[in-house]
Structures are given as C-alpha cells and as structure tokens.
Design brief:
This protein has 7 helices and 9 strands; from the N terminus they run ββαβαβααβαβαβαββ. It is an alpha/beta fold. The protein folds into 2 domains: 124 residues, D-Maltodextrin-Binding Protein, domain 2 (3-Layer(aba) Sandwich), CATH 3.40.190; 79 residues, D-Maltodextrin-Binding Protein, domain 2. Strands 1, 2, 3, 4, 5, 6, 7, 8 and 9 form a 9-stranded mixed β-sheet that branches. The chain is elongated, with a radius of gyration of 18 Å. It starts with a strand and ends with a strand.
C-alpha cells in the first residue's frame, strides 16, 4: 500500500568496517568461529535489510555463521562506538553510514573518530528523499515550501541527530527560510512508522544500498 510521496532526493552512502584499535588480525586460519556483524540502525530499515543480504553472501564465502546485532540509536553513533571498543581480530564487523563515521565526529564529541575504523567496502549508496503521507495535500516541493512558511515548526523524522538527513533538512530550511522541529529515531524503519502513524508531518528517508567495516589492525 502506498503511504508516501517523494518530494525530493539526495545520495547517501553506507559502509562495512572494522575497528582500528592496536593489535593484530586473526591468524591464517581465519575465520575459525562465528562473526558478529553490528548494524547501526533499527531492524527493518534499508541498512538492516541490505546488511542481512550481505551477511548471507559472506557466510557462503567464509564458511562460518555471521550473527546480526542491531544497535540503533544516536544516528549510528551507538554502534560505531561499540565497534571502536572491540578487539580488531576480524570477528566484529560494522555496517554503518558514511556520515556517522566521517562527519559526526566533527559535529559532536564522540568515543571514536574516522581513524578508529578501517573501511572494508562501500557496498551500497542511497537515494534520500523528502516524503509525506499519501493523503497529504502536497504534490510538489513548491506546495510544501509554501505551506511550511505559513506553518513554522512542522515536525519531521530522521534516522537520528546530526545524520545526513538532519543536516540536509536544516540546510534546506535555512536556504528557504523555514523552521522545522526534528524528531530523531533509531533508523529508517522507525522514522517511516512515525510518518505512517502521523506522529510527524514528514520524513527524510533513504532507499538503496550501504558499507561494510571492521576495526583496522596494524
């Protein structure tokens, strides 16, 4: 069932990485036990779905089980901080967003920075967009802007604070002279739920593909 209209879009990337703490990688027999893949957003969202598909493919290549653990929250900073604290032995992987690794540490104090990780692969990129409920009167961005100017303080949902979605929305608002109220969630699926339930007036979601990361070793 169609629940939203897309009014605008932009691109966002995701990555697979490993922690960059000091220490060696696993032995030549790697892998010889199950691997944990942390997903930085809530279950059911685009990152989660693509991460599970990635894990299935890696299981066939590596020959060991890969357990998915969703650690949504803080616009991916919860999962990122968790991986940064892990031993870089190849058994803890992270699927997260590029911005949470490269941009977020410049905007707020965190337990990690871009050097805390080694990127293994950017395996997807997203097309992000401004969406509203299907029964909304807005059919174009121009109509939306006109209404927003007359009704400041409209709410919008994103996958977390200081994410690409929030930064993009605030830049859009500043450019157009608008004022919105941000409602952060733990991921795209929860943001969509808030929009479908009309708990927020609009959403800024991404659809497409993410990255694989691990803690880098010497």
């Amino acid at each position: 069932m169609k629940f939203s209209q897309t009014l605008g879009r932009w691109t966002i990337g995701s990555m697979l990485a490993i922690s960059c703490l000091a220490g060696g990688m696993a032995s030549a027999k790697y892998p010889d036990k199950p691997i944990t893949m942390y997903v930085a957003f809530a279950a059911g969202g685009t990152t989660d779905v693509t991460a599970r598909a990635l894990a299935q493919g890696l299981e066939k290549i590596l020959g060991v089980p890969i357990a998915i653990e969703n650690k949504g929250g803080g616009g991916a900073t919860v999962a990122n901080g968790l991986l940064a604290s892990k031993k870089p032995d190849g058994y803890s992987l992270l699927v997260s967003s590029t911005g949470s690794i490269t941009v977020r540490p410049l905007l707020m104090k965190l337990a990690y920075n871009a050097q805390s990780f080694r990127v293994l692969s950017q395996y997807t990129f997203y097309i992000g967009g401004l969406v509203v409920n299907a029964d909304s009167p807005f059919k174009t961005v121009e109509q939306f802007i006109e209404y927003a100017k007359k009704n400041p303080g409209m709410t919008y949902a994103s996958s977390g604070p200081n994410t690409q979605q929030q930064v993009g929305v605030e830049a859009f608002a500043r450019c157009k002279g608008l004022s919105f109220k941000h409602v952060p969630t733990k991921g795209g699926s929860t943001a969509n739920t808030a929009l479908m339930g009309k708990h927020v007036g609009k959403g800024f979601e991404r659809q497409g593909l993410p990255w694989l990361m691990r803690p880098p070793a010497d």
